[in-house]
Task: structure prediction
Amino acid sequence: MRRRILLIAVILLLFASSCRRANRPASAAAVPPPTQYELQLGKQVYQSYCIGCHGDSGAGDGFNAFSLDPHPRDLGDPVFQKGKSNADLADAIRRGGAGVGLTSLMPPWGHTLDDRHIDAVVLYIRSLRR
Result:
């Protein structure tokens, strides 16, 4: 009888500890830093599709920016960067400004870029943080 109680106690303890691990949020340290390849790919895609409005450094000062109202967002702004998750940025790229409740002047790139390229652009945008 003692063995049965001990066995049940051990099983419950293991179950409880695995539940605690599963409910723990993933730490930022668990996410590996982007590779040079991912950053380079993101930069190339950014230069092809985003630089005209968001500018070389992401400051919203591309050659088309001054003819747009509202002006493109400063992607390097620390407050903006902190307030947006990678999923938020990818969604805006994929669905465009109008798709996420912003200006329709930012086109949706979801039919042009695949998920790998969108994720690479998001990583590159993160590297623009000032």
The mean pLDDT is 87. The helical segments are 2-23, 36-49, 51-54, 78-83, 86-99, 115-127.
